[in-house]
Amino acid sequence: MSICSWWCAALAVSCKMKRVDRHPYFCKYGNMESGTTKKRAERVAKYADMFSAMGTEPRLRIMQLLLSAHPEGLVVGDIQGELEIPNSTLSHHLDKLKNEGLVLVQRESTFLRYTANTEALQELLQFLYSECCTRNKALKPQDIVEFCG
C-alpha cells in the first residue's frame, strides 16, 4: 500500500467523523500551534517517531486494516487472521504503534481490541500539511480533502 493511499484512508475516516471540513482550519485560519523553537522541535521529533512507527510495511498494513474497521476496531486474532502475521511479530508491531499513540487498545474479557487513534492521525495530517497554505502554498487545501465532499 502506498503512503498516499494510507493518507487518503486516514482523511476519509476523518471526513466520516466530521473532523475535517472542505476547507481545513489549519490552512484556512492558520491556527496551527506555533510555540517556541524548543516546542516545535519536540513536536517534529514526536511526529518523526510516529512516521517511523508506520514506516514498515506490516505496520502500515495494520493501520490500513484498523482504519477500514473504524470505529469498532479489531481484536488481535482478527488482525492476525487478516494479515497473516505471526502472533509474536504482530504483538511487537502493535506495541510500537500503541507506544507512539497511533492505536488505542481496550481489554474485552480475554481479548484485546485495537482501534486507530484518529485524533493522533488527524494531528499528524495537520502537521504534514500545515505549510500548505502559509509559506510555500505547495498544495491547494481543496485538493487535499476533495474526496470528502
What does this protein look like?
With 149 residues, the chain is mainly alpha-helical. It has a single domain, classed as Arc Repressor Mutant, subunit A, CATH 1.10.10.10. The protein is built from 8 helices and 3 strands; from the N terminus they run H-H-H-H-E-H-H-E-E-H-H. Strands 1-3-2 form a 3-stranded antiparallel sheet. Helix 1 runs parallel beside helix 4 and helix 1 packs across helix 7. The longest helix is centred in the N-terminal third of the chain and has 17 residues, at 37-53.
Strand order of the largest sheet: 1-3-2
**Helix fraction?**
55-70%
CATH fold-level topology: Arc Repressor Mutant, subunit A
User: What's the CATH superfamily, by name?
Assistant: Winged helix-like DNA-binding domain superfamily/Winged helix DNA-binding domain
Terminal CA distance reads: 24 Å
Q: Which CATH first-tier class would you pick?
A: Mainly Alpha
Number of domains: 1
Determine the structural class based on helices, strands and strand pairing.
mainly alpha
Oligomer: single chain
Q: Main beta sheet, described?
A: 3 strands, antiparallel
Mean pLDDT: 79
